[in-house]
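Hi everyone, sorry if this is the wrong subforum. Our group has a chain we'd like a structural model of before ordering constructs, and none of us has done structure prediction before. Sequence below.
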Amino acid sequence: MRTSLQQRLRAWIAAPAYPWATGGALTAGSVAELLAFPGSSTTTVGVLVSSASLMWRRSFPPVAMLTLAAGLIGFAGDVSLYVSIMTSGLIGCYTLGRNRVLHPAITVAGGALGALCVNLVHINTWAGMNLPVPALWEHDSLSLFAESFLLTVVIFGAVMMGDAVRSREETRNERNLAQVQLIAMERHQAAEAERAAIARELHDIVSHSVSMIAVQAESATYTTPGLTPETRDGFQQIAGTARSSMAELRRLLGVLRTPQHPGDAALTAPQPTLDHLADLVEQHRAVSGEAELRVTGARVSLPAVWELSAYRITQEALTNARKHAPGARTVVEIDYGANRLLTLRIHDDGPGPGSGPGSGAGHGLTGMRERAALVGGRLTAGAGPDGGFLVEAELPWESK
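Answer:
Right subforum, don't worry. Here is the predicted structure as tokens:
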């Protein structure tokens, strides 16, 4: 209920008609006050101008300087302080601080100077009324300036209140803008991460399948007896088309790929698991020579991210072996360590690093390292101790 009333009040204050309604009401009150307590012509003009000028305070905030000046002049014309002058003066000072027409220090200094002038006019009026007014150089003369001091304090308070409201609103607007920018940045980063995940999955899945097509088509020309020249050329065209598709895929991945940060595990879809490694090795054996899977330790059911990362690392290592060391003997070793460390070793007896075309380029090794880092592990790739190429990954794990 309280919040609803506050919202309605804020909406009413923010309405375009608010300054006209309040300014008009204050002017009508000023007229009624002048009719009840007539003053001098200077006071009458000052009261009316000070009240009526507030109707333009939102469309033209500097008019508040006229409001304050007219109020001080009207007060100087009569020693009686009209309620309308006091109200319009406070609103004028608040408007000057709220819109920062001038620096608050300048506004307060100008108001203090105006208050001093009003006080001097009143001192002169008191002397003309035969009131006991001490000379300005006498000891008790400081008490004569209590009026200017009080007016300065009131002006200072109203200006500072307006400036504080302005500062709070600017801070709120900056905070809202920062929040909008943060949300936009998070959405942009989420889109980039999603693109990176798509690129990684495309590379792991499509490149594996297409490379198998190329290897099978090329090896068929040598392992299948009695092929006609036309059939042999057809197999070679299939292999060439597969390689062209791989080149197009790499260009596509170059567009999609963006830097990937550790901790984006939620973006990885849990598809294959370590139970599918035997099928993966069998596929590799069918198209690229001898391959062996060695498992050490008891099978442990790992979280989906660990299972998928280990599978994809093995898949990519086998794909690279077919690409750069066709026909080489490949051994895949997986160790479910007792110290909660899953170790993968994929080793071939081929010619080693830098042997094939495009070796070391592309996103294969980078993707494997990212997958290892995704689960807090590490991956090394390079020449094996007995020659060939070795990929070794250590993935710390926690059981489900």
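For your construct planning: The chain is about 60% helix and 10% strand. Strands lie at 291-296, 330-336, 341-348, 378-383, 389-396.
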